[in-house]
Amino acid sequence: MKILVINTGSSSIKYQLFDMDTQAPLSMGFAEKIGETEGFLRHIKFFSNKDKKEHDIHAPIENHQKGLDLILGLLTDHEWGVIQDKSEITAVGHRVVHGGEQFHTPTLINDAVIDAIKKNIPLAPLHNPPNLLGIEVALTHLPEAKQVAVFDTAFHHGLPAKAFMYALPYELYEKEKVRRYGFHGTSHGYVADHAAQMLEKPISSLKIITIHLGNGASMAAVDGGICVDTSMGMTPLEGLIMGTRTGDVDPALPFFLANHLKMTLSQIDTLLNKQSGLKGVCGSNDMREVIEKYKAGDQKAQLAFDMYAYRIKKYIGAYYAILGGLDALVFTAGIGENSSEVRSSCLSGLNHLGIVLDEAKNNERSRQARAIQTSESSVSILVIPTNEELKIARETLMVLEPV
Ligand code: ADP
């Protein structure tokens, strides 16, 4: 069975086609700058695990309809294709950022589900509209395929009220659903499952902290497979310091910015979401550049790096406390998988908690899932490459063929 996974942004479509018999990707790629004057599409065809070929197209992509047209054309192309006909695609798994309170499992899409995702737009005004557009476009291009929504918030469904409530008037929760939801759920769920496999123990017996450090960054405390707390909140702005987002700040900060600096709401929104984080402190939101700069003596880059790692360390302490013990810490996503510097800095001085990093193992470069703790560490420290697309494909399959 072939499952196509789609992740639609406001000007992009990322895709991956899986053969679910082997769970291997046949093809993947992305279209970006959709609707702009210069569009770009990269299509990758896999011949085997290691052997692949890339095909780039530089041309305007008018809209998402045209984008998916182009993608399906490539998937069935005589040279670049991996299937004969689009009818071979049994199902499409869609990443949907915000499932609100009603969606906590992958869901077969019908009109009622589309309406419910629309109702959650106020909670995710930047993400849910393009996700919906992706669903509509896929419905028109692949009307025979089953369409499944996999929600980024779903894994955090198990948060207890004491973790998900804000200390605001209760009516705001009752009437407007103002609460913490958490994001990156597909990734946290994937790496937590993978960690249990690596430790050869049932996930129901494990206490795990998962640390997803990409452009966006978040952590989750996972107790027996259930996420009991996570660092992002009602929106992805809360929690860790990110590439361009502040993470936690004093909620009174916007009053100062508005009253004292006369900033508008939209300027404050842009400041906190797009001009802050690593970029705000040292001018670069790319961790590779931040590290290069601090190694060359740039003090602001050093500060940005130290702040970034310090915030992670604080959350490790908090989650260790609420879990009441710890079996494994898992690093994932671009920075978590690749930056030995970040891992080393945020785990320094945690020996008294049984968290002891093996620096030599930490410095080894590898794309494989691996353990990097010393033999005396009671906590396993794992680096696990995330694979949100595979997780979406697996969850889509589970909707079609429940076990
Ligand atoms: P996204 O959230 O967009 O999926 P990624 O998971 O790809 O992002 O992570 C992007 C981040 O990973 C960037 O900050 C980038 O600098 C960082 N990164 C990638 N490779 C390395 C590396 N070798 N060392 C440090 N950071 C890295």
- Which spans of ≥5 residues are poorly predicted at pLDDT below 50? none
The oligomeric state is single chain
* Average pLDDT metric: 96
Q: Largest sheet, described in full?
A: 8 strands, mixed
Q: Supply the helix-strand structural class.
A: alpha/beta
> Could you give the count of β-strands?
14
What distance lies between the first and last C-alpha atoms, to the nearest angstrom? 16 Å
How much helix is in the residues? Answer: 25-40%
Largest sheet, order of strands side by side?
5-4-3-2-1-6-8-7
Radius of gyration: 21 Å
- Ligand roster: adenosine-5'-diphosphate
> What's the shape?
globular
The sequence of SSEs as H and E is: EEEEEHEEHHEHHHEEEHHHHHEHHHEEH
Beta content: 15-25%
Number of helices: 15
